[in-house]
Every structure is written in structure tokens, then in C-alpha cells.
Amino acid sequence: MSAAIPALFVSHGAPSLCLEDNLTTRFFSGWLNGYGHPSAVLMVSAHWETEGLRVTEWRHRPLVYDFRGFPEALYRMQYDAPGSPELAKRVGALVSAAGLGQVKPDTQRGLDHGAWAPLTFLLPKADVPVVQISLPVGWKPQGLYELGRALAPLRDEGVLIVGSGGAVHNLSTVRMDSDEVPEWARVFDEWLRENVLEWNTQDLFDYWRMAPHGVQSHPTEEHFLPLFVPMGAGDCAREAKIAHQGFMHGSLSMLSLTFR
Q1: Does some domain include residue 1?
Q2: Fewest CB within 10 A of the end CB: N or C in the chain?
Q3: Count of alpha carbons within 13 Å of 180, Cβ hemisphere only?
Q4: Region for 37 from its dihedrals, namely left if φ exceeds 0, alpha if ψ lies in -120 to 50, beta otherwise
Q5: Closest CA to 11 of 216, 200, 189
Q6: Which residue range(s) make up the domain with 167?
Q7: pTM, entire model
């Protein structure tokens, strides 16, 4: 491959996005056009938090349906991509070599919807191996950025590094039947776009304090933290692009980013 494959941050929205046809799903379906076919996917999702860093190490496991109250069709969704124990071991070696500790292999947990929901659009044939790494409890943005930097060599091997979360994620303000975007959500989303494009990691690492409405936009951090892994994987070039933006269900930002 002549150039490293990009790293991505995707705002995956509500699980029901899988059943919809709209501007966001159409964008996801064409996002990888022109970037070449990845050799594998390494995914970090907001929906897998663990004590210490873990990585899935299996050939095949059933999906995890980690949500409630959605249409029955969503619980029948399948995404039969294989895993890759070889990539899982490579991840562990890179993390260890960077001095970031040991990665524990997980042979039981399947992909959660933060992983399989966007992948049903990004790589609908499910013909690319997928490995998922966890969000270690207590790790801060800078540590996850360093994790991304450690994993960056995988991009030269054709591995697509994806962080899956949400640019604005406050479930108490989501309105499934509303298109009205609260001003505070719009302002935070704009701040995020500006600071990512400027590669202002100093303020991004301290977003709860530095961003307008940072705490309101992310009362808990798990949907924001996946941003820093693909961003760290793009540290060498520090070239960010707004791939897609907009809101759904009121305050749920669908901002997605490409790092080259």
C-alpha cells in the first residue's frame, strides 16, 4: 500500500440507525470509497469498558446486543466478520513495546453495537477481520491518544483503526421524535470541530474544563474517549478532515472524522 490507510472516528448514533436510510447511513456506506480495502479493522467502542486494556482474540463469536427497547428486527441483525487472533497479538506487542502495559486477550466477548452497527455500512460484506480493543477504566484522553500513537504502525499494514462513540452524547436530552438541536449541543459540536482541525490536543485533552458545555455534552466520558485513539494514530501527519456532520434526535451529534 502506497500510503497508510486513514483512521476514523464515527459517531454511531442510536442503535436503530442500522434500520434506517438517511443522509448519515448513506454517508457511512460510501465513506471508504477511494481509500482502498482494509486488511482488517481495529475498533474501540464506547460500549466496552474494562479494568485494564483488553483485546478480542477469537475467530468467531456471536454479536452482543447491548441495548433495550428497540424494534425486534434490531436483535436479529447479524454481522459475521471473523476475528483475527494474529492482529490481537500484534496489538498486544505494540502496546507493550510502547510501555503502555500489558493487553489481556478476551476470547469470549463478541462485537458490541458500537462496533457492528457502523460496520454494517462501512464494510457491509463482513469480509474483513475485526478486532476490538476495550476502553480501560480510568484512562484519560492523553493516555488513549498515546495508545493510538502506539498502534499507528498498523495503518501501514492496511488496518483500519476506528473509534466509535458520539461527538455529543447526553441521553437525558435525546428526543427520538425531534429535529430541534439545542444551542448548547451545537456550540460544543462547533468547538470540537474547530479544535480537531487545529489539532489543539491541549484543550481537547481537558475538554470538560475548556469546552463550552463540555460536561453537559458528555455527562459521562465513554462516548467521547474513543475519539483519541484514531486521532493519536494520525499524530504523524496531524491532518484531520470533517467527514460528516449533523444531528439526529435533537442533541445526538453525528460528527465523524477522518485522520490521515
Answers
A1: no
A2: N
A3: 5
A4: beta
A5: 189
A6: 7-259
A7: 0.96
